[in-house]
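Minutes, methods subgroup
Present: GH (chair), OT, SY

1. OT presented the first of two proteins processed in the latest run. Sequence and structure tokens recorded below as shown on screen.
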Amino acid sequence: MFKFTIRELLLLTLVVALAIGWWLDHRGYDAQTASLRFEAGMYRYLTKFMESEGYRLIWENDHNMLTILRPGESLSGEE
């Protein structure tokens, strides 16, 4: 029969644990990516719609802040 030392069993346990951990971590990426693509599509659609209605959208701080101006409205200090 096979004889395994404690050292070999611990090494096998470590390899299996790392493989399972990697799999659990990466299995959610497909769902997360699909969700982010859907949200990006919705933002693009809403942006195009609002601009077609005459609103002006100004993204600031690397797209972390959005200013929406009504038709004919301008920012203070802007002509």
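2. SY then presented the second protein from the same run.
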Amino acid sequence: MPRRRAAEPRHERPELIESSRMSETLTAQTLLITGHQGDEVEAYLAHPSGDGTRGGVVVIHHMPGYDRATKEIVRRFAELGYDAIAPNLYWREAPGAAPDDAAATARAKGGVPDERLIGDVGGAAAYLRSRPTSNGKVGVIGYCSGGRQAVLAACNLDLDAAVDCYGAFVVGTPPEGFPLQVTNLVDQLPNLRAPLLGLFGREDSYPSPEQVAELDEILTANHKPHEFHSYDDAGHAFFSVDRPSYRVAAANDGWERIRVFYTTHLGG
């Protein structure tokens, strides 16, 4: 299929990011869902008002954890018209802890095992599909380490769309001393079950532009539908509004592409 690569950021006005389905009222809450091996896992849910059916989005948080920024992203998807949920991947290691402390505890143990991640995201997707407002379609999105985990989930679960925001080590090898016990996903990429949108910064080192190109080549060789966009003057974590890495033009363009991608594959 035709691919669009290395797109230049478009400087849209904020209102161009809005969807015709954008909800002016929404509800958000913390709850427990069933995750890997039947474990109860904390999660943050947000959904728009109204009884109409809609798609769902599982948000996989970044390495710094299940934090305020993650919950803002969940609410943004609800504002865009989706039922959205973020499981707390560090809940078992540090239930009730502050995000920084929970993240440090999880890193000290090597991070979230892949098998457990698949189980927790699968549980979150099942929860969204069980809601009376579900249209049966669920997408996944992840940032930083969550970008790799979004691809991992889409290789192992029946999902309808996946978004990888600068996920490291989908290809490539972690450097010596890297705190997480992770391997690349090269052997799993032929099993990718959902269309993939990838959003990357050209100034990032993990993933580097060369690694993004390698991923593109692997997916193309395996006839996997995907769409990649890379941004100048952007490195890792360019979506993070609370960090110096935030890049307005890249983030605005990325949000618009996510909206269009999910409208196409989840309904909108």
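Chair's summary of item 2: The two ends are 23 Å apart (CA to CA).
Next meeting: continue with the remaining queue.
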